[in-house]
Amino acid sequence: MNKIIAGATVQVNEEGYLTDFPQWNKEIGTALALEADINMTPRHWEVIDYLQGEFKNESPLSIRKIGKSGVVDIKEFYQLFPMAPLKTASKIAGIPKPASCI
After folding, report:
1. CA 24 remoteness from chain centre
2. CB atoms closer than 10 angstroms to residue 29
3. d(CA 95, CA 17)
4. Which residues does 33 contact at the CB level (< 8 Å), separation at least 6?
5. Which backbone phi and psi does 10 adopt, to 5 degrees?
6. Catalytic (active site) residue 101
7. Which helix (H) or strand (E) holds 49?
8. Rounded distance, CA 13 to CA 39, Å?
9. 5 bridge partner residues
10. 76 SS3 class
């Protein structure tokens, strides 16, 4: 289905995750973050860049893997994205909800 985010029409699934990653841009990511009550900082963007890189490499994501990534530890990940961190960060990054998330 279509949704207008940051003035752009994008394809999303029923949970609001982008279904066509090339449609993502930083303005869309910022708008999705604001929907989740998150004000993006350079630190947030570092984590988003990491998640997108893993997605592009078709590498499955999990909280544990992110904690071992060297990019962010689990405690900080929860501070940056307090509500359902992996689901929220994935949505902001414009990638599908990870299989490890229910």
Report:
1. 11
2. 22
3. 7
4. 39, 40, 44, 92
5. -130, 160
6. yes
7. helix 42-56
8. 24
9. 8
10. helix
Three-class secondary structure assignment of 80-93: HCCCCHHHHHHHHH
First to last CA, the chain: 21
Joined together, the tokens standing for residue 87 give 């689901």
Structure tokens at 12: 């999303």
Task: Decide: 89 and 54 in contact? Cβ < 8 Å.
Answer: no
The one catalytic residue among 12, 49, 101, 102: 101
Instruction: Report domain extents, the chain.
Output: 2-93
13 neighbors 21 (Cβ within 8 angstroms): no
Residue 97 per-residue DSSP state: P
Tokens representing residue 8 in the block: 């752009």
Distances (CA, A) of 10 to 1, 25, 35, 85, 94: 8, 11, 16, 23, 10
Stretches where the chain sits below pLDDT 70 are: none
Q: Which two tokens stand for residue 42?
A: 């350079």
Q: Are the CB atoms for 82 and 39 separated by under 8 Å?
A: no
